[in-house]
Amino acid sequence: MKEKKGIGESINRLFKDPSSLVLVLTSFAFLILFVIYPLVVVVFTSGFDNWATFFSKARYGKALLNTVVSSSLSAFTATVFGFIYAYAIHYSNIRGKKFFRFIAFIPLLAPSVMSGLAFLLLFGRGGMISQWLNTNFNFELDLYGLPGLWIVQTISYFPLAYMTITGVLRAISPNLEIAAQNLGARGFKLFRTITLKLALPGVINAFLLVAINCFADFGNPKLIGGNYSLLAVEIYGEIINNEAGLASVMGIILVIPALIVFWVQNKILSKGSYSTITGKPVSGLKRITTSKRTDALLFSFNSLISLFIISMFAITILFAFTKNFGRDNTFTLDHIMKVVFSSSSPAVLNSLVLSLISALLAVALALVLAYIVVRKPFPGKRFLDFSAVLPIALPGTFVGLALIVAFSKGPIVLQGSAALIVIAMLLKQMPVGYRGLTASFKQVDKSIEEAATNLGASSRKTLTTIVFPMLQKTVVANFVYAFMKNMNTLSTIIFLITPKWVVAAVSIFNYAETGTYYWAAAVAVGLMGATLGTLGVIKLIFRSKVKIFDF
To answer: What's the pTM?
Structure first.
């Protein structure tokens, strides 16, 4: 008997399954309210007068140019550094690979603004290295503006590029490289014609992710950008000045480079095939490694990157546990007690609570969306899928701007509430889980769920008792990712925080901007400690079901 298809039949099936109907309607309502509606409000808030103002003032045009230039430079160097670092780990015979993997992981525990803080402590006007150069060589180091921002964003987002690229390099089968070597390809030619081309998806995705983060970066440009103004900083200034219309214009313009990056990525990746899983046996084959001379260069490069990262963390820890490092090096716990464990400074606790709630909700929503999109036929599926992944293409600064503009006045007012912060965090992390779970659902045979349905199980019961246990590893991995990103987020929520609901990343930024570096460092250490502690508990609970500290 031929299966009936069509919109009418899909609707009939939904009404026969109340649980699925509730899930579909709830998903539509949430995404329309918190993704589509804010975008529409931002577009209508911008207004023609504000567009005219933006294009009539050279200051805003310069901020746009600066954003594109600095983000492109930082994304390029972070991607190059991430590729070289990952290549050294997977294609060389250098020692200390486990150590280098660990070093690439630890920056993910800290907010990107901590890089700006550490840079100020080392290379700012009163920084350790700046003072040493001035005292011993009478040389004044001035890295504020583009040079400093370029360095900081490169180091801040290098781990993101490395994590993206290392997964691709690890997955490349050695058989093609061995075949190319047997045909005469050696050294750089082998690397250029085989390895680099096969790794291209990872390289482009890394550039995309870093560029999006650089476009949205607010804390680092505000701390060390000096007179080198960027759009994210200008948007913040206009929101502070209650100029929501002008901020909306700049937010819309900020989205354009991000969308261009996505378009370029899709164009490049659609032109070639990068598959290395061919079905041919590869067990026993050893990957072709680099020469001893290249090993020495790669080891030196990874060591320099590691030294820079260690220095940033070390200087932050020293400021957190001394009275005023460089002037009074007496050990103290006063800073930690005052800004981490004091009831009057709940920033770290707020971050922990809001991040856990948001991560749980993000994974739950991603699971529901993936389930109904892959498993349930209903009208509007493409729209739902598009709305679910749209936030990942939007800079965090724009997401925060859209939410504050949409919900600062009627009909729904959420400004100043913890709920709006949770929603902002959720929107930025949910698409990642949705993509991963969608892929996982497609790998699970549908007949298992159909058997449960035939035995009388509702969609809710099937989801909780059949589907979730099978996808537990993916769910937990996405929860860990969402939690870590939420703990460190700044750009997405900078417009949404209030004195009652200030979070750790914002506190680090505020203390650093006012020059109280020891308090900023103490909050950074407290934030990393809370993140590590929570991840440790998750590891103890789920054990082998989730990999966190496996380097």
So the answer is: 0.86
